Amino acid sequence: xxxxxxxxxxxxxxxxxxxxxxxxxxxxxxxxxxxxxxxxxxxxxxxxxxxxxxxxxxxxxxxxxxxxxxxxxxxxxxxxxxxxxxxxxxxxxxxxxxxxxxxxxxxxxxxxxxxxxxxxxxxxxxxxxxxxxxxxxxxxxxxxxxxxxxxxxxxxxxxxxxxxxxxxxxxxxxxxxxxxxxxxxxxxxxxxxxxxxxxxxxxxxxxxxxxxxxxxxxxxxxxxxxxxxxxxxxxxxxxxxxxxxxxxxxxxxxxxxxxxxxxxxxxxxxxxxxxxxxxxxxxxxxxxxxxxxxxxxxxxxxxxxxxxxxxxxxxxxxxxxxxxxxxxxxxxxxxxxxxxxxxxxxxxxxxxxxxxxxxxxxxxxxxxxxxxxxxxxxxxxxxxxxxxxxxxxxxxx
Length: 397
Known about the structure:
The chain contains eleven helices and 15 strands. The chain has 397 residues and is α+β, with helices and mostly antiparallel strands. A hairpin with a 2-residue loop joins strand 6 and strand 7. The longest helix is centred in the C-terminal third of the chain and has 17 residues.
C-alpha cells in the first residue's frame, strides 16, 4: 500500500492528536481472550497494518508495515489517569502504532492517534474487536480516507481561500524546511514538560436525555445547538465555535480519517431565551453544513497548502520552531494565542451494536484531543439512551 497523507496532514505533528474512549462492559471479560481478539482485529484493518513515512521532499505516506505496534495491556489506572500517562508518550506511527488499549477498572479504554482514523472509525474498530471476542468472523477492511481528488466536485475552495493558499505557499517556498520524527520528538518533550490535560465527564441518564431532547424539539433546534447555547451563555464576547463533522461521502464502516469541520461565531443574546439563542445557532450551523464549499473547505485548504508549512503550525504552537513567517501564519490559523473557544464533536447516537455474546456495552465516553487550535474540546456520544459529554482542556503545570 502507498497512500499520500493530504487532507489529514495537520494531524501529523500535533502533540495532542489522540482520541480516547472508555467502554463500560457488563459481564466477565477475560484478558487473555481480549489479547487474541485485539490482535486479530488489528490485522483485519489495512490502515492499522501501515506506518507513516516522511520523505525527503516533505511528503508523507501510509505504507505497509509488517509488524504493527498497536497494543492492549492490563492496568490498575482509571480513565483520566490513562489519558494523562499516555498523552506525553508519542505514538510511534512510523512503526505502525495507532491504538493503545487497556483493560482498566473503569472499563476497556482505547487511545487512538487521529491518523489511524476518526471517532466513528474507532467505534467501528471496537465493534469488530468485540465481535471477534464473541467468536464471530469479520471481513478485511481496506484503507479509506478523503484525499482532495475524492472531495465533491461542487466543494472547491472559494476565491479568497485560493488566494490565501497561493500567498502563503509562495512565502514559505523562500525558507521551506522539511521536518522529521526527531523534530516531533523534540516538540513532544518540550511541550509536555509544562502541560497536562484535564478531563471532566458528565453523564446523563435516560430521563435527563429525554428532557434535553424535549427542550430542543420545543425550541426547534438540534440538541447540539441547544448545548452550545448553554455553554456560551455566560461568555461576555462573541464565541468562536468549531464543529467536527463526518465527511463520509457514502454510508460505510471503513476505518480512516473522514473528519472535516465547520465553525460559527455567535454572541449570546441575553434578551432571548436559551432556546431562542439555540435556534439562531442552529441556523448558522445548518447554513454551513448544507453548503459543500463550507463543509469541505478545510479539507481542500489543508490539501492545497505546502504540507511542511502545515507542520509548522503544530511546531510553532508547541514552542520548538519559530520564524516570523510561520509565527504570523500560526496566528492567522488560530494556532497562536487566539484559539477557538469551543470545539465540539458529537458522535450522535452510536450505530454500533451493544450485545456481544455474554458481554454487553453499557455506555461509552468519548474524549476528543485538545488540538493545538482549540481551548475547550467537547465530546458527545449516546449509547443505550445514556448520553455522556466530556470536556477536555489543557492545563499548565
